Amino acid sequence: MRLLLRDYPRDAWPDHPNFAASIQNWMGAHVMFGQVAELVRLNTEGYLEKQIAPEDHAGRLSYYGNLLVRNLHGHHHWEDRSFFPELSAADERFDTGLETLESDHVVLDSLLEKITRKANRVVTLTQLEEGKAREEAPALRDMVETLEGFLTRHLTDEEDLVVPILLHHKMRG
Length: 173
Prior knowledge:
It contains four helices and no strands. By secondary structure, the chain is mostly helical.
């Protein structure tokens, strides 16, 4: 996965002539995913510390949780169906790395499903039996924290593989 990364190190990407706005936007989406996941976790921590009212937590969790899950699913679906095949066609040496990223997406889908179920349960319990919501919220916080770590690793791996391919083959410019 790191074959071209030696020739195209991360710290040189912004100054590379083939580093296009489309690459910056794609990487910007990655930053946004981490920020929204952190926001969901911090919101839940604030609720657990009784700094955020239950109704406010439920509303924010519904909004930002949905934003996070929908955008991650959409982003990775597009990568798997369109972007990764384009990269594979440009340079078959990277199929193994791309397969690893696609398998990460399967793991990500499973984690997002668990987060969605737990978040929906916490929101529902907030309305029905708030004490139970507070009991279940730590598990949600832990799942989102796991997601944050997964995203950090996965998105760094993804960028380290993909951006050098894009720069090398003058793609997306």
